[in-house]
Design a protein that fits this description.
about 100 residues, mainly alpha, DUF1825, DUF1825 domain-containing protein
Length: about 100
């Protein structure tokens, strides 16, 4: 079975990307959140990025041809911005850490 034909993989991908879209939309109002709202938003983004990191690792570890093509496409896409997948995740973490520091009194 193709990696992406798995119902579990499809459900997880759908959930991750749906949650991401919801958080990005919600993030448009981030400046209006109180301190607790901002803290909760950051925590949700951290959780989402960890789920995404795990999903991508599963794709990378798969020997399935389509999974490997997906990895190559991600690397090519990020390469256009001078990034690798690990650098992308590091930048995500740095952004969230900066957001946390901004919440400190």
């Amino acid at each position: 079975m193709n990696f992406f034909e798995s119902e579990i993989v499809q459900a997880e991908a759908k959930q991750i990307f749906g949650d991401y879209q919801d958080l990005v939309q919600l993030g448009g109002h981030y400046g209006k959140f109180d301190r607790e709202g901002k803290r909760l938003y950051i925590e949700q983004m951290e959780t989402l990025f960890e789920r995404y990191r795990i999903f991508i690792k599963r794709v990378e570890l798969s020997e399935d041809f389509m999974a490997q093509m997906t990895v190559k496409q991600l690397e090519t896409f990020l390469g256009q911005f001078g990034l690798t997948p690990p650098q992308m995740f590091a930048q995500m973490e740095q952004t969230l850490e900066r957001m946390k520091r901004e919440l400190e009194p």
